[in-house]
Amino acid sequence: SHCAFQGGTLMYEQVPMVEIDGMNLVQTRAILRYIAAKYGLYGRSLEEQAWIDMYVEGLRDLSDMIMFFPLSLPEEKEMNLEYILHRATTRFFPAYEKALRDNKQHFLVGNRLSWADVQLLEVILMVEECKAGVLSGFPLLQDFKVRTSQIPTIKRFLQPGSQRKPPLDDESIGTVKDIFKFEQGMFLKNMSTIVAEY
């Protein structure tokens, strides 16, 4: 709100903001990192934290693509979906399949659940909303998805009626397109930074 801006509650005058432990935290990754550390999901050493950060950053690249996808223009939707699925199955999923194989602990890092595992499950579910069966060539990721989805707190979060946001509906997509004035080629333009890194 304007009052929040004027009072300095929002450091950069933008959301998200989380009020926790007497602080007003802004910036998505800062919020997630704090919550992960607070609840024991951020590794037991600097080395584990570095691996968690690397995995999370890679997952963010893929999730950004998926979040932009519903905003594709109709004539570009099929091309953009093919792009996402290609990147997921040739770059990202093989990396996480290998990470699970190398770690041999059912988790990406160490021997317990971390922020990276939670992010991986979320991204898997997001890609599956684009195309069912996308994990068919990744047996360890399939097992990971089933196993992690059964953790009681995560299982509750995945139930209908929870706080997990569903995919955007047509009305919401139209509103976002109007606000950001999506144009031809906008999807790939926004992905250009990610593409340049690989």
Summarize this structure briefly.
The protein is mostly helical and 198 residues long. The chain has 9 helices and 2 strands, in the order αββαααααααα.
List the helices and strands and how they pair.
Elements: H1 2-7, E1 17-20, E2 23-26, H2 28-38, H3 46-68, H4 77-103, H5 115-130, H6 139-149, H7 152-157, H8 170-180, H9 186-196
Antiparallel strand pairs: 1-2
Sequence of secondary-structure elements = HEEHHHHHHHH
CATH class of the largest domain: Mainly Alpha
CATH topology of the largest domain: Glutathione S-transferase Yfyf (Class Pi), Chain A, domain 2
Beginning-to-end CA distance, first to last residue = 39 Å
- Overall pLDDT, averaged? 85
Strand order of the largest sheet: 1-2
Say how many strands there are.
2
| Helix count, DSSP H or I runs of 4 or more residues | 9
Residue windows where pLDDT falls under 50 for at least 5 positions: 1-6, 192-198
* Proportion of residues in β-strands: under 5%
